[in-house]
Design a protein that fits this description.
Elements lengths: L11 E2 L13 E3 L16 H13 L22 H4 L6 H8 L5 H4 L1 H8 L6 E5 L5 H10 L4 E6 L2 H13 L5 E5 L12 E7 L8 H11 E12 L8 H6 L4 H10 L2 E7 L5 E8 L2
Parallel strand pairs: 1-2, 3-4, 3-6, 4-5, 6-7
Antiparallel strand pairs: 2-5, 7-9, 8-9
Length: 279
């Protein structure tokens, strides 16, 4: 998940209505592009993305959102710079990165689906949905009686996921543009939260975990897939990019009120952890 904050109140989008010119966190969308929406998808950093990030770094966009140099101890674990590039992302570029043969997560997507325990009729949140690889798999698996929430801080990612959903004639997906501290989900609304290659992007993991726990129903589960970070073993890119390894992540999640129920080692560079919300 790529995360940022805003004080702007959420809005909803209904079927057939045009997408607002700027999507604000936590915006909720229930369909793909409507008849009144402009054709085409933004690509590259763009002037809007550059201006938005400039305002964010100056702390001018949203009152109460601390800039990196405030010294405020608000539980932030990573810099917002880690996520800035996704705000006005080139969707097709990232789709080619995330959904390609040779990427272990992509090659093992069906095994991941099985291990996650997704079943017909479930309510699933794909948090850090990216280009929608698992959102689409979940939507087919839960069927028309279930529901999938595609949650991401990138409006471009969410809009394009819903475009793909519409093309595949799936009617059980809702898009949510979330904030750095909350997933934007209704309390007690989901059976499973799925977080793949995203936990290390959480700027405020404690706050985000509280939000996820609140959204889960009693006995609901949280699946986390992320990179193994082992000095001397992991690639230098992982050591630079990922702030903590499996043990640290598991400890943070358990501290947030979850219990570890399964750990799998079928991925080359990633671990697979499944947690249950504590009663």
């Amino acid at each position: 998940m790529r995360s940022w904050s805003s004080s702007i109140r959420p809005v909803r989008r209904s079927a057939g209505r045009p997408l607002p010119p700027i999507l604000h966190p936590a915006t909720r969308m229930t369909c793909a592009r409507g008849a009144g929406d402009p054709p085409g998808i933004p690509h590259g950093p763009g002037r809007f993305g550059q201006a938005l990030w400039f305002l964010l770094t100056l702390g001018l966009l949203a009152p109460g959102f601390p800039s990196a140099d405030t010294g405020q101890d608000d539980g932030r674990k990573v810099s917002p710079h880690l996520n800035a590039g996704y705000l006005d992302a080139d969707y097709e570029r990232w789709k080619a990165v995330f959904e390609r043969p040779g990427r272990d997560i992509f090659d093992q997507r069906h095994r991941i689906l099985r291990e996650s325990g997704v079943r017909t009729g479930m309510q699933v949140a794909d948090i850090g949905a990216g280009t929608g690889l698992f959102t689409l798999l979940f939507a087919r698996s839960v069927g028309p009686e279930g529901r999938v929430y595609a949650v991401d801080i990138s409006p471009v990612f969410v809009q394009n996921i819903l475009r793909r959903v519409e093309q595949e004639q799936l009617a059980n997906v809702e898009g949510i543009v979330n904030t750095a501290k909350a997933a934007g989900l209704v309390a007690g609304s989901i059976d499973l939260a799925f977080v793949c290659d995203t936990y290390h992007h959480f700027e405020y993991p404690a706050a985000m975990l509280r939000s996820i726990a609140a959204a889960l129903r009693p006995g609901g589960q949280l699946v986390v897939i992320d990179f193994r970070r082992i000095p001397g073993v992991s690639r230098p890119w992982i050591l630079r990019h990922v702030r903590g390894g499996r043990s640290e992540v598991a400890a943070e999640i358990e501290q947030a009120g979850f219990e570890l129920v399964a750990s799998k080692d079928f991925l080359r560079e990633n671990y697979f952890l499944r947690f249950r919300k504590a009663e």
